[in-house]
Known about the structure:
By secondary structure, this protein is an alpha/beta fold. The chain is built from eleven helices and 19 strands. Among the domains are: 87-165, Dna Ligase, domain 1; 237-293.
Amino acid sequence: MAKEHIICGLDIGTAKTRAVVLQYKKGAEKLSVVGVGEVLSSGVRRGVVSDMNEVSNAISEAVGLAEKTSGREINSVFVNLSGSHIGSRVSKGVVAVSRADQEISQEDVNRVLQTTEAVSIPPNRKIVHVIPKEFMIDGEGGVVDPLGMKGIRLEVNALVVDCSVPVINNVTKAVSDAGLDLEELVVSPLASSKSVLSKRQKELGVMVLDMGAGTTSMSIYEDGSISHVAVLPIGASHITNDIAIGLRTEVDVAEKIKLEHGTADVKSVNKKEMLSLAEFGLEDGGSVSKRHVAEIIRARLDETFELIYKELKKVSKQGLLPGGVVLVGGGAKMPYIVELAKEKLKLPVQIGFPNSDIDGILDNIADPEYASVLGLGLFGFDEVERDYFSSSDGAFGKIKKFFKTFMP
Length: 408
């Protein structure tokens, strides 16, 4: 590897588009954040591109700011895929070990992972990740890395993640129109967990909940590997819209009210405490009850956590994750959100921040909103670091990357 390598993660969100530049120096103990760019998103709805030109412009602007702060030229990016179109399922594969001495080779591992792609999906969907959960050798399970072991039959249980082809194509084109090469597409739930989880949390059983503006994504880990991902079509922007409707005011004003005075703790707000809308530029707006604002926020968050709990129940993980829940995303900054999540999900809850494997200008990104974009950069580092990664096209070209990336 070169003495210095530059990696750029690009998070195209509903509310904001962010770029983070990571630097790897040969011999360094940690990656360094050397550049950050952030702009308001435009042309993105619930994580999906709705206006190509606006998205491309936002990408160019965010990456341009990251180039300016880092002093490096950015030509390629690792980009997130978001939206409720993301789906996942468990798939099983089995092959006979090819070598005469019965030692399992990398070719055997590749073949068994490739067999998991033989699942029925509609023609407008594409497999983007195949992530091994557990290998089995001659019926004996619990194998994390089968390379070099001996056996006759190799099996695997893998999580297959698929996405909408039109969404993939639109994101790819937006990046290309911005004059950048697309290195890799990574679904947002995986990117967020990459930057905030420890090995121990993954082994215990943990869920990362990324509460973005347009969507809420969840990724569940057990025994060191990922077991489920899902994206719900509800996010912090829905709270803003609810406030705008409830107070009969503009969306921009509602957003300011949410950020400056919002809380999920209704009981902590005095019923008589009022909020003047004049401070938000509405001279004839009168005043509103802060308690009413809190009630609007709480109603939407109650609904959100109910949907999350139903998703946990669907995969039989309600109350069964000792590592608890790690909250990231802009929604994680809402006052009282941790306490409410504990109550609704019946699990330990904490806010997620960048892990200790990163240094540099952390003051700019020591924020749960940067979990996804940092995770994208870390995926990029994994790709650069491992010389044997496949460079072929399609999902199978990513299998060997994700095999090592998701090992505990």
